[in-house]
Amino acid sequence: MSELTTGSFSIDDLENVQITINNIVGAIEKEAESSDVEMGPTVKPGVSSLRDWDHNVLDRYNAVYTPMCDQCCYCTFGPCDLSGNKEGACGIDLAGHNAREFMLRVITGAAAHSGHGRHLLHHLIGLYGKDHPLDVGATNIIAPNVQLVTGVQPKTLGDLDDVLSYVEEQITQLLAAVHMGQEGAAIDFESKALHGGMIDHVGMEISDIAQISCLEFPKADEEPPLADIGMGCIDSSKPTLIVIGHNVAAITDIIDYMDEKGLNETMELGGLCCTALDMTRYKAEDRTAPQAKIVGTLAKELKTIRSGIPDVIVVDEQCIRADVLEEASRLMIPVITTNDKVMYGLKDRSNDDIEDIIEDLTTGKEKGALMFDYEKLGELAPRLTIMMSEIRKQKGIKALPEEGDLKAIADTCVHCGACEVACPDSLPISEAFTRLSEGDLTKFEWIHDKCIACGRCEYACPKDIDVVDVIEKCSQSLISEEVGKVRAGRGPISDPEIREEGVNLVLGTTPGIVALVGCSNYPDGTKDLYTIADEMLRRNYIVVVSGCSAMDLGMYKNEDGLTLYEQYPSRFRSGGLMNTGSCVSNSHITGAVIKVAAIFAQKNISGNYEEIADYTLNRVGAVGVAWGAYSQKAASIGTGCNRLGVPVILGPHGSKYRRALISKPYEEDKWNVFDARDGSEMKIPAAPDYLLTTAETVEEMMPMLAKSCIRPSDNNMGRMIKLTHYIELTQKYLGVMPDDWHKFVRTETDLPLAKREDLLKILEAEHGWEIDWKRKKILSGPAMKSDVSAQPTNLKRLCKEA
Amino acid sequence: MSELTTGSFSIDDLENVQITINNIVGAIEKEAESSDVEMGPTVKPGVSSLRDWDHNVLDRYNAVYTPMCDQCCYCTFGPCDLSGNKEGACGIDLAGHNAREFMLRVITGAAAHSGHGRHLLHHLIGLYGKDHPLDVGATNIIAPNVQLVTGVQPKTLGDLDDVLSYVEEQITQLLAAVHMGQEGAAIDFESKALHGGMIDHVGMEISDIAQISCLEFPKADEEPPLADIGMGCIDSSKPTLIVIGHNVAAITDIIDYMDEKGLNETMELGGLCCTALDMTRYKAEDRTAPQAKIVGTLAKELKTIRSGIPDVIVVDEQCIRADVLEEASRLMIPVITTNDKVMYGLKDRSNDDIEDIIEDLTTGKEKGALMFDYEKLGELAPRLTIMMSEIRKQKGIKALPEEGDLKAIADTCVHCGACEVACPDSLPISEAFTRLSEGDLTKFEWIHDKCIACGRCEYACPKDIDVVDVIEKCSQSLISEEVGKVRAGRGPISDPEIREEGVNLVLGTTPGIVALVGCSNYPDGTKDLYTIADEMLRRNYIVVVSGCSAMDLGMYKNEDGLTLYEQYPSRFRSGGLMNTGSCVSNSHITGAVIKVAAIFAQKNISGNYEEIADYTLNRVGAVGVAWGAYSQKAASIGTGCNRLGVPVILGPHGSKYRRALISKPYEEDKWNVFDARDGSEMKIPAAPDYLLTTAETVEEMMPMLAKSCIRPSDNNMGRMIKLTHYIELTQKYLGVMPDDWHKFVRTETDLPLAKREDLLKILEAEHGWEIDWKRKKILSGPAMKSDVSAQPTNLKRLCKEA
Amino acid sequence: MVDVIKNTQMHCTYGCKTSKAVQPNVAGKMISKAKRPLLIVGSQVLKDEELLKRTIEIAKKADLPVAATGHSISGMVDSGVNAKYINVHSLATYLCDPNWKGLDGEGQYDTVIMLGHIKYYVNQVLSGLKSFSNLKTISIERFYIQNATMSFGNITPEVHVEALDELIENL
Amino acid sequence: MVDVIKNTQMHCTYGCKTSKAVQPNVAGKMISKAKRPLLIVGSQVLKDEELLKRTIEIAKKADLPVAATGHSISGMVDSGVNAKYINVHSLATYLCDPNWKGLDGEGQYDTVIMLGHIKYYVNQVLSGLKSFSNLKTISIERFYIQNATMSFGNITPEVHVEALDELIENL
């Protein structure tokens, strides 16, 4: 029995009894011994285990609160007025409450991802068994986040189960702290928020590696196939099935049924949000182009329904408009819910006969159905779609106003401006109606590209104008041209890629990783994202995308009609553009960062969170961007990045997360670290100068990105490259030189080669630095020394004694 | 190996490896076979498993929303204006959002309890091992809630571990649904809220049976000892250590140290909130009177600190004012935090030498310390208390204003009324200041008894008057008399008690169970609770109390100086008054209800939630009361009762939970159930006519309580008794006859004996019923039949075919 | 004329929609004009005889049916007022239901008048009516009640009595 | 005189405390009187030449140092205005810090004037200043900004230009 491992076995004299050994006490330690896996100090950290690290980081990057409301209404002592940082009835002040609010958003996001993971895992274990091996491609580190946090190196689906229980325990502990009368200090709510963010990446990783391993997704693939995207790519003459959500578990059976019955030409299958992305990954391991089409992001949901094109809608979970059933049933589109997170009050038909369900839905007796039996769903949804297409045609279901009616609708507008006050982006709806009255549709077309179709304008309108319908109708020709290409999610970054690129990242010769993540809802549509990615790719940054950002990036083409996906290689290298996959694939971005420490720097990562985060913060120039207005998940994803030492920039809507982490570069004593070689203190550049902040415009963000990638470990070549981009981007987008560029200069070789002489002159004239003009050398001036072999760390404990 | 069970064992040829078998697949089924334990249909129900039951109940008891705010600020699309039930940017409407808000409160409460349970369990397993047997007294059903929900019959501490993981999984799933873009239907958020409430009782039960089993608490004890309670029972001349919170794990070491060192006479150990209650249960299994004193509830926290009496404060978790550190350090009272839920930004001193910590705290170098090592805490806290007492005396620390200064303070009041607007109960502070200016302290004394010492008045005051200090100073003589007695928490109700009383409850001859639970913060101090309990005990109701309610009930005495605890037996029987224990002991109240079904009705309870809830709703006259303003935990406790079919009345502050469940008695088709004997429909009385509602005053609540206990299963004697109380209480407290009493009359024997003739006359004259005056019999009129052998049920599936 | 609309300070807001501050004479006229009014009287009237007296007077003069909430009914026994006990939370629930027939079976109300309630409680209960009914709600309490359609401002007990007198004159 | 305080409608409230609606002439005088003012200019000025022109005029006439946020600095190069680029979120952070020495090292500011910002963004950023600083914040945007100390109401772009002209006259 010495080969006893986790798993299941039977014993002869216990009939019908199968024994499952979930966990062998000491197994991790044993494995560590046998395979030389070192364990760090924080295996499965509790809420307070990494608090020292958090307080260390928060001392430089201060929590900045911009409350959404200066009241608290959590408990029945209240509501309490906390304005001016007053205390409420329980003694909490506005800073504490806001920190708590932010933490709650973070764990809500983390719960959404890990709740998704739990559902997937139950489902996949049901289909493939606990012993199904995990396989995510060419890597020895299957689950970098899992390993970093818990010390576990999962090999099978079953191994993920226990890790997920740890995640759930931590989330419950954090939610408990939200309760009245718990934490009293804002800084400890911040530490809890960071804990929640870290946990989120574990939950995301579990979700994605489970589905990659079971559903034949691309596995660290450097050339995953391209998929169609856009409202314009759906052939609306065919019966159309639209799926919405984030969890492909329910949908694979539909794809299989359609394949099996040869329905791919008969009908359209389109998806919105991450389920769409994961549909294109399903069975794409062999690089066959996916049949399913991506309609678009959350911002396209209402527009898609209002178009009347879907004949049936299937929803699963997350990022689904709450009014799908209401909106769809107005246009006689049956809705099938498939997940207990979203049930819409519909009758559970899981145990009913398909024919009965079809009868009830085609006759309109029921507006929709709840279906937990995915095999049944696989048959029901396509069949119903084909039938509903015919029925809806016969009934002459009419969506959107007639073009001839637009002027009359515009004339009813009284120009009260209520719609503009209600519009999240203050779009000029009133003016567009004036123009429409004159027969000019172009202003509404212009709005279409900025409008996220939230529908608030319609509720505000005293004349009950269906503003979204008007926008959509006015933009029909634009919409029909909305077609693009997205690379299917490749999954993790492979070990060979990391091995090759790690050194460039740490020395700075690859200027940085820019990760574009999160939701869409960019007031300027897809263009902003394209601008960022294009600019940074040209400058040889590594650009990684995921989720809705990955979708939007595929919607914009250059003059030759090519998307960025078609122009840049999908490899983790300087100038590479990778789509990791759906929302939960964000874990591969932090995963790649962790792997840089593991593979390039040969660090132990098991249960060694603090050291790896410290390594990242001081050496890996990576920055995340979540540009759009967004759900709670961006808060958790971003916060998970933050704890790992990766800064994140949000768009202006991101200020409504109510909390940023911003440093004060003028506090000079905050910009010191230890040199691990001897424990001496060393000055470091004030970059990144935030861990979570917002940018006002894309133009402002460009130089911020470059500066955010500057790290103490940059060698001279690396610093020169980064500084070049920082200066060039500032000049290009702000029209001026950055006023702090000189603070990043340690020696003349840090200076951009082409401008070296000019810059030396400025250093001499404006900053009083001493220059040896003969040798073009800096004699005095820099605050920092250039010493590439220094080992910058925030952690005294990692230092050798002097 | 055929005796293999869950637990741990070692194998000889695997050195240093101990194998823990957490779970044997099929073990439950096997045990079921061997011991004839039947399993119901919902073992470890997921989020949707009991949804049919919820929808069934919600069809009669409609969710009623009274929003605290008609906006939503969850995500960065917002904030959104939902007023008038508008939809926000994600499509959610005000009803849906409010249902979500309520659900979030419920799971916050549930997380607090189960997070507490997880902490306790880790701690106790660390001390006593996984195999430590569970023992809660004379019962075969050790964990009725656990068994009902999960089918597990736990025997050891280790058995609880797995159940708690299930709880954490469910809480995570529910939190996930809070995320933007999940559930769109209010009714399904309601179902999720009910799920969270049910889960809460599992979490509470785990917490309490773990500590009862390990810490020598009374075990279903019918005569637990009495403990001292009240701010007046602390001898302030002695060094005083005050502990605040809900988790006694950290405190037992302090008690042990004090015992061991003979410090019980040297210093005072007092507690606030549930930790105090559990201190009096610790080692009280043998009925020795506890040394530790209960200072009071949450409402006494600020007053206790402001008094300056504590020399050291130790906090653990839950219901601790967030400003404890700030308030305490003003009076040089060091604060020790002991739990990761509450850390106050303090330095973790767990690994430091006690002498160093004492040095830092006695010199004021640090305001407090974080201490996770409870053995160290056990020594640190008492030693520090004795030292601080001396130091604080020497420093002449002054708390509260001098009596001579009161008039001057009163004169600074400008009577702007801002304090009264800020006061949660609109207390007449301005008038009290006028009187105080005239030298009259009595108005402030009057306020003292109503004031919950939340401190909002102080923040509102433009003259910076420390209003709470003034109230407290004016009430010194009153406070010194605040002494009472509380019976230490007895734990669960025993099987013999249930066996004896079950029949009376189901037939109604014991008119009902009234459970007084939840927080204090009664604007009328302790008197309201006394009034309710006294009235109902005199009427032979069973009264069960827990938590802060149990404390407050001990603060009021009759003319003979006796508390109700001293007047009524602590047995589960008609006219019995029981304190089950702390907050988590609320699970024993639902536990008792479950046991009635299990023991009296011989129902299978394992994984059989729906049937037991249906049984309770239709046959067990129990009602909960949570009278004060309260934290989120009351929402979860109450909602757990609701799913089980137990109605709950809240005080007026409870309306701020924003959601009630109220029926419409005029919807006559809602008041039918099936008779399980043949599936026929039968009319039932409209009682309870709510599952969660509020009462405006204690006077209003009295008749509500009586009516809430009326059930279809009442026999004639039972109905007569209940109706008698309903009529008498209405007359006594409202001054009128209830206008619906006749609706509960099925036959003349249902009528109160003493008034039978008068009532028959009214039925004839006002309601047109036909009476046979000779035989004093009702010939026609009643809407319902009297049939004691009927088996009322909401569940068609439980009915025999006709 | 008593001015009751000067002070509309609230401790906290329930959102953007805020009740219109109303003077007693206007309130009086609106009550008189209502087609199907209901006076909802809370238990706080029992704490002040002057208040109770005026409550009864309002009910009688305007011939208003009274919903007596809490235990306020005990103050109106034999007062000649058409009062019925009802729990205010239940009442608010029924008031949102177009199918409810009223306390007298004659149908749903169009205007309710709130008097004698606990401030935070009535505000909370009215918050439901504000968003989930079309009912007009007039608060004549001595506090500014944000969630009513119309409300007096914050006034002293003395001014409150004067204001009610003026309201009565205008019935 | 332009009336800019008529419409103070907001989509949602951030709590009870609401900015005082202010007329252009009053705002102008307050700016002139400030001891240590800072004009914070957002990138929206670049979308409207009239607005940009007046922004520069305000800065020059009142001799205000300018914090140029977003990429607004690109519109002020060579305009003769004393402008420095800074991220507005960072700026708001420093404005809450009594130890900050300002853009020019001369010390913390007492009054900031907001112009040319994205409505929801500036409101959000100001919410931090409202609760965590003693700074006076004057919004002269064309939207009512609740979290400022003082703000114009909601006005059209045309009225906005007129209002700024009037403000300039009163500097």
TrEMBL record, chains A, B:
Domain 4Fe-4S ferredoxin-type: residue ranges: 404-432, 442-473
Enzyme class label: oxidoreductase
InterPro entries linked to this entry: 4Fe4S_Fe-S-bd, 4Fe4S_Fe_S_CS, CdhA, HCP/CODH, Prismane-like_a/b-sand, Prismane-like_sf
Binding site for [4Fe-4S] cluster 3: C413, C416, C419, C461
Assembly description: Heterotetramer of two alpha and two epsilon subunits. The ACDS complex is made up of alpha, epsilon, beta, gamma and delta subunits with a probable stoichiometry of (alpha(2)epsilon(2))(4)-beta(8)-(gamma(1)delta(1))(8).
Origin: domain of life: Archaea
Positions annotated to bind [4Fe-4S] cluster 4: C423, C451, C454, C457
Family the UniProt entry places it in: Belongs to the Ni-containing carbon monoxide dehydrogenase family.
Its EC number(s): 1.2.7.4
A Pfam cross-reference name: Fer4
Cofactor: [4Fe-4S] cluster; [Ni-4Fe-4S] cluster
Keywords: 4Fe-4S, Iron, Iron-sulfur, Metal-binding, Methanogenesis, Nickel, Oxidoreductase, Repeat
Protein name from the UniProt record: Acetyl-CoA decarbonylase/synthase complex subunit alpha
Binding positions ([4Fe-4S] cluster 1): C69, C73
Catalysed reactions listed for this entry: CO + 2 oxidized [2Fe-2S]-[ferredoxin] + H2O = 2 reduced [2Fe-2S]-[ferredoxin] + CO2 + 2 H(+)
Cofactor binding note: Binds 7 [4Fe-4S] clusters per heterotetramer. Binds 2 [Ni-4Fe-4S] clusters per heterotetramer.
GO BP terms in the entry: acetyl-CoA metabolic process; methanogenesis, from acetate; response to hydrogen peroxide
Binding site for [4Fe-4S] cluster 2: C72, C75, C80, C90
Entry's Gene Ontology molecular function annotations: 4 iron, 4 sulfur cluster binding; anaerobic carbon-monoxide dehydrogenase activity; hydroxylamine reductase activity; iron ion binding; nickel cation binding; peroxidase activity
Binding site for [Ni-4Fe-4S] cluster: H246, C274, C319, C519, C548, C583
Free-text domain note: Cluster B is an all-cysteinyl-liganded 4Fe-4S cluster; cluster C is a mixed Ni-Fe-S cluster which is the active site of CO oxidation. Cluster D is also an all-cysteinyl-liganded 4Fe-4S cluster that bridges the two subunits of the CODH dimer. Contains two additional 4Fe-4S clusters, dubbed E and F, that probably transport electrons from ferredoxin to the B cluster.
Primary role: Part of the ACDS complex that catalyzes the reversible cleavage of acetyl-CoA, allowing growth on acetate as sole source of carbon and energy. The alpha-epsilon subcomponent functions as a carbon monoxide dehydrogenase.
Residues reported in the UniProt entry to bind CO: H113
Pathway this chain belongs to: One-carbon metabolism; methanogenesis from acetate
TrEMBL record, chains C, D:
Organism: Methanococcoides methylutens MM1
SUBUNIT field: Heterotetramer of two alpha and two epsilon subunits. The ACDS complex is made up of alpha, epsilon, beta, gamma and delta subunits with a probable stoichiometry of (alpha(2)epsilon(2))(4)-beta(8)-(gamma(1)delta(1))(8).
Lineage: Archaea, Methanobacteriati, Methanobacteriota, Stenosarchaea group, Methanomicrobia
GO molecular function: oxidoreductase activity
Domain of life, source organism: Archaea
Function: Part of a complex that catalyzes the reversible cleavage of acetyl-CoA, allowing growth on acetate as sole source of carbon and energy. The alpha-epsilon subcomponent functions as a carbon monoxide dehydrogenase. The precise role of the epsilon subunit is unclear; it may have a stabilizing role within the alpha(2)epsilon(2) component and/or be involved in electron transfer to FAD during a potential FAD-mediated CO oxidation.
Gene3D superfamilies: TPP-binding domain
UniProt family annotation: Belongs to the CdhB family.
Listed name of the protein: Acetyl-CoA decarbonylase/synthase complex subunit epsilon
Pfam families: CO_dh
Pathway membership, UniProt: One-carbon metabolism; methanogenesis from acetate
Gene name of the record: cdhB
Keywords: Methanogenesis, Oxidoreductase
A single BP term in Gene Ontology: methanogenesis, from acetate
